[in-house]
Amino acid sequence: MPIRCLPALLGAAVLLLIPALAGCSPGSTPPEDSSGSDSPPSPDGDEAAELARQRLGEMSVEEKIGQLMVLLAKGTTAEESADLVSTYHPGGLIYFPENLEGAEQIGGMSNGLQDAAADSGAGIPLFLGIDQEQGMVARLPVGTRFPDAMAVGATRDTAHARALAGATAAELTALGINLDYAPVADANTNPDNPVIGIRSFGSDPDLVSEMAGAEAAAFSKGGVVPVVKHFPGHGDTDVDSHTGLPVIEKPRQEWEREDLPPFRAAVEADVDAIMTAHVLMPALDDSGEPSTLSPEVIGGILRDELGYDGIVTTDALNMEGVRQTHSDGEIAVRAVLAGADQLLMPPDPQAAFEALRGAVEEGRISSERLDRSVLRILTAKAERGLFEAEPASAGAAADAVATQEHREAARTLAEDAVTLLRNSGGVLPLEAGATVSVTGPGAEEIGAGLEELGYTVVSDPAAADAAVVGTRSARGDAEQKSRVSAAQGTGTPVVVVAQGDPYDIAELDGVDGYLATYSSVDASRAAAARVLAGEVSPSGRLPVSIPGTDLEFGDGLSY
After folding, report:
1. What is the pLDDT of residue 17?
2. Which of 32, 226, 369, 414 fits 523 for a cystine, CB–CB 3.0-4.6 Å?
3. Domain span holding position 325
4. Contact 272, 225 (CB under 8 A)
């Protein structure tokens, strides 16, 4: 989901027995599970199903329709969203940064919203969700910041995926958040992808399957509902579905080979929820409808062919990729008819609600079809213990986020991910005590790390023994490329630290050294400094191939 869009602002063991792509990272071993302890006991399958059926029988049609909707929370208090809860009885709310100020506030708001839901209609607890993928998509203003998914893929170590998701789940549950729109299961096969990129574990479907499965299982173990996204795959697009409708022209056989495996694995692992993508894939459905509105894609492939019977949620319905040809109310109806169970962020909740109620009254959406979706939602809530859940301890929430254990897990992941792709003349590691210029994105953090390790840091490459230039997705950025060229023009050896996708190297000719961190979080920049200094030997391996170079999936140098 969403990189947030206001009107259109960017705003279970592990699956299959997939052969390991590589051994564990030779770096430090991450914690096996950073969640601290398993989530509280929940009803078993039979008890949960019975509870769900009982509650379903007590609900009105309007209350059932409400369960299909996940609305955008208002303000920073439960009172500001109280009207949404009392009017629509929604299945859930989603938080964005403007709703979040601090641990105690978030926990208190979560408790207040659950109280409001308990006092409203049939008293069904809420899914309180968030986009906390980590890396570039992390909404919380508190808690541990882990590197992006592509960094996890570069480690080749599922223990890192489990540690990330376990720590994130522990922090979310402490704040009263019970659902995370993560992990991303898209294989990023298009280097020009404007919206997935480092949010993906890589381009290889087996690697993505392993890592996404490990994260989903750890989220679930930690008491948080994982939402695997974005089916049928958003990794081979060059259009951002927040602003337009991506069209993916590839034969079905190629889709089955490149995009399907992570989602098939998620289905076989019986994940709680899968999110649809607002993409058009003519080989799967030539009707012109995006996958979110396609009975052939959701009902035909995901439900019937793959056999998935969990919750299907749409991506945000205020994104332009799904708003091309229908009204907002009709979009809600068509998504349900296609096979979706939950409608994320309808831009006009009243229009969606009324359109759904009208479709039920007219028989366009049968009562059986409505009940099927609501029963899936209620069963998941019962299985996750939401009906008996204790309130979040708002006062203690601050102590539960960003623990030393979690920070250590982020540090080891970041260090194990750093990938050395070029080291001409042995420019790295830097000579002890050298004078180093550091410029570009991350200069402050990388420079501070080098100073702590005994280097003299300056800003002028001409006055340095080596020039470190940070980049962040610089291929289309003339200013960043010019900064690299200027450093090269001084005659000082130049080392690039790429903190976004690793593809920049294809357009940065002649640099002496090149490190990929796959993330711009503080932990990744600190890791870059330690690798530059030789305190850590780079052990990451490319999780993608880089067109225009001889660099292939799996490449990476060491000291």
Report:
1. 32
2. 414
3. 45-405
4. yes
416 is an active site residue: no
pLDDT in tens, 117-135: 999 999 999 999 999 999 9
**Dist. CA 148–CA 524, nearest whole Å:** 9
- Distance separating alpha carbons of residues 239 and 249, to the nearest angstrom: 13
Instruction: Render pLDDT for 534-556 as a digit per residue (tens, 0 to 9).
Output: 999 999 999 999 999 999 999 99
116 and 81 in a common domain? yes
Residues 6+ apart with CB under 8 A from 310: 270, 271, 272, 273, 274, 376, 380
Whole-angstrom CA distances from 247 to 218, 239, 311 are 33, 8, 25
Question: Considering its fold, how many domains does the chain have in total?
Answer: 2
Alpha-helix residue ranges (DSSP H) falling in 425-521:
443-452, 478-489
d(CA 25, CA 17): 20
CA distance 1 to 315: 5
Claim to verify: residue 384 and residue 442 sit in the same structural domain: no
What span, in angstroms and rounded, lies between the C-alpha atoms of 545 and 553? 5
Q: Quickly count: other Cβ atoms within 10 Å of residue 509's Cβ.
A: 9
425 and 396 belong to one structural domain: no
Say if CB 524 and CB 412 are below 8 A apart. no
Q: How far apart are CA 378 and CA 48, in angstroms?
A: 8
List the catalytic residue out of 131, 186, 315, 341: 315
Question: DSSP of 351-363, one letter per residue?
Answer: HHHHHHHHHHHTT
CB-based contacts of 381, cutoff 8 Å, min separation 6:
52, 124, 125, 127, 387
Cα 211 to Cα 185: distance, rounded to the nearest angstrom: 9
Share of the chain above pLDDT 90, in %: 86
Say if 515 falls within a structural domain: yes
| Residue 425 Rama label (left phi>0; alpha psi -120 to 50; beta) | left
Q: What is the pTM of this model?
A: 0.91
Note whether 365 and 465 are same-domain residues: no
Q: How far apart are CA 239 and CA 454, in angstroms?
A: 45
